Amino acid sequence: MVYFYYLKSLKPILLNPFSKNKEIGDLDSEEDITILSSNTLTQEDNDYISQESFNEIDTSVNLWIQEKRYYPRLFISTLAFFVMYFFLSLVIRDPIPVFDELFGSIAFAIFVWYFFTKGDTKSSIANKKKLEIKRHVNTAEYKEINLLKKIEEYIYDIKSTDNLDIADALCLVEGELKKIDFIEEENLYLDNFITMLKKKMLFNDKFKYLYNKVVKVRDSGIKNEAVSSKLIEFGKEDKFSLLILTLLIVLENK
After folding, report:
1. What is the CA radius of gyration of the chain?
2. Is residue 151 over pLDDT 90?
3. 3-state DSSP helix/strand/coil percent for the chain, to nearest 5?
4. Is 185 exposed, middle or buried (0-12, 13-18, 19+ CB in 10 A)?
5. 3-class SS at 19?
6. pLDDT (tens digit, 9 = 90+) per residue, 39-83?
7. Cα→Cα distances 29→86, 132, 176, 247, Å
8. What sign does the dihedral 35-14-241-217 (CA atoms) show?
9. Which of 7, 11, 20, 124 has the highest Cβ tally under 10 A?
10. Could you please report the per-residue DSSP string of 181-235?
11. Confidence of residue 28 (pLDDT cuts 50, 70, 90)
């Protein structure tokens, strides 16, 4: 079973196992898909899920075909380098024989590499794979689960908390983070949800940097005013991401 998680809290988030997944082309395209949400989806929700998932499928299939065609592309680009090098060496006379040939050949090899990369992503194989997966997503079932309702309520709850209080609690300076009570049956979805949320958010370099800093602070058990200060500034720039970082820490320490 493949699960999508649709989190509708302040800003919608779709956790999609197909997102930035270079193995997407080798996955079982017939496995059942269920889209999980906290309540009944509106047409606007459905449109967002379709657009977001289709964009992520396009990106992942492009990564998959580029990986699959890596060695043929490398061979062609290398061949292009040597062909251009010998062409420039034998045909064109210049005062600096080595450097011009070398730079010209490298530039041509890079051009060939990107030309074939672009061609691979628009190939019939890639287009067919994109259509197959998108059509399968369109057959997905929808299911409401209380787990996501609890998570959404938690995000709304801590939204009104001052950045200083959130940062100090995360960095063990002062106060404690509120917890979320889950029942045992919800663990089926919870571990998968945490993994997918972490994967999605850690693609943001700043989020990843601060997340790792907070984890180190909490593992050490020693308060850290400096990291707390960085989190306060982060919250000023992007309060929603600070809330998601807090949520992730809370869920991982459930």
Report:
1. 24
2. yes
3. 70, 10, 25
4. exposed
5. coil
6. 889 999 999 999 999 999 999 999 888 888 888 888 998 998 888
7. 47, 7, 44, 32
8. positive
9. 7
10. ---GGGHHHHHHHHHHHHHHHTTSHHHHHHHHHHHHHHHHT---HHHHHHHHHHH
11. low
Spatial separation of the C-alpha atoms in residues 245 and 254, rounded to whole Å: 14
Question: How many other CB atoms are found less than 10 A from the CB of residue 127?
Answer: 14
SS (H, E, C) 66-120: HHHCHHHHHHHHHHHHHHHHHHHHHHCCCCCHHHHHHHHHHHHHHHHHHHHHHHH
pLDDT at 188 over 90: no
Contact (CB, 8 A) for 30 and 139 = no
d(CA 192, CA 134): 22
- Which one-letter DSSP state was computed for residue 164? H
Residues belonging to the chain: 254
Q: Is the pLDDT of residue 172 over 60?
A: yes
Q: Calculate mean pLDDT across residues 178-182.
A: 88
Give CA–CA dist 45/42, Å, rounded: 5
> How many angstroms separate the CA atoms of 124 and 150, rounded?
44
Gap between the Cα atoms of 191 and 128, Å rounded = 32
In the numeric block, which tokens belong to residue 166? 């959130």
Closest CA to 247 of 2, 3, 13: 13
